[in-house]
Amino acid sequence: MRLFLLPLLAFAATACAATPVDVATPAPARPTVQVSPATTAEQAGLVDVATLAPDIRVEMRYAGSDNFTGAVVPGYEARKCLLLEPAAEALAKVQADLRSQDLSLTIFDCYRPVRAVHAFVDWAHHLSDQRTKAEHYPNVDKSTLLGPYIAETSGHSRGATVDLGIIRCKQRYDEALCDPLDMGADFDLFDPRANTDSPAITEAQRANRQLLLDAMKQRGFVNYPMEWWHFTFKPEPTPTTAYDVPVK
Hints:
Elements: H1 2-16, E1 34-35, H2 41-44, E2 46-48, E3 57-58, E4 82-84, H3 85-99, E5 103-109, H4 114-125, H5 133-136, E6 161-169, E7 178-180, H6 203-218, E8 221-223, E9 230-233, E10 241-242
Parallel strand pairs: 1-10, 3-5
Antiparallel strand pairs: 2-4, 5-6, 6-7, 6-9, 8-9
């Protein structure tokens, strides 16, 4: 017993005498996000990106049935891309940068109401609904989507995150003559192939993703590595505030 007690006491004394520099500092807690009481886009400070970049293509997939839920998502009453003003202005600059190359952004989603996020979570819990499996999660079991692919809280609700791709136009400003660049995976494909740096895509597809990455990075947007289409403007204007006003 004594042979082990003396080293233990010595260790305890050394630990007590350690300076604060030697003591590990806990990582700071992530700030809590609160839902704003705003009831309109104007009150929330959300602006329509189309007012800043009229030629941007706005699809807003969740305002229709062409999305992984197979239905219009609650909170989307119009096909409008709403963002907080700093993010909207930065996105308009990206569009201007691409315009000179006969390219254009195509928007899949922008600000997302909190109620829409709740609808996504509810859909993920309904495992019997497999209508969109072949298109959106062919190689992944629906029971595994919540967490890795569908978040219970979303940065989109803070008004500075956008999902988008690029289209190339044969004639500038004529949307009918524009085709999407091949990114190797469609928007909202729940699959490792959608990871920005996926090894499963071709060199041409990788080059298209890099084109989007470079264009967005130049104007302050940071990519989410699991989704080639997902970008957040940094620094976020309201990092601790989410919004639940409808898109209309």
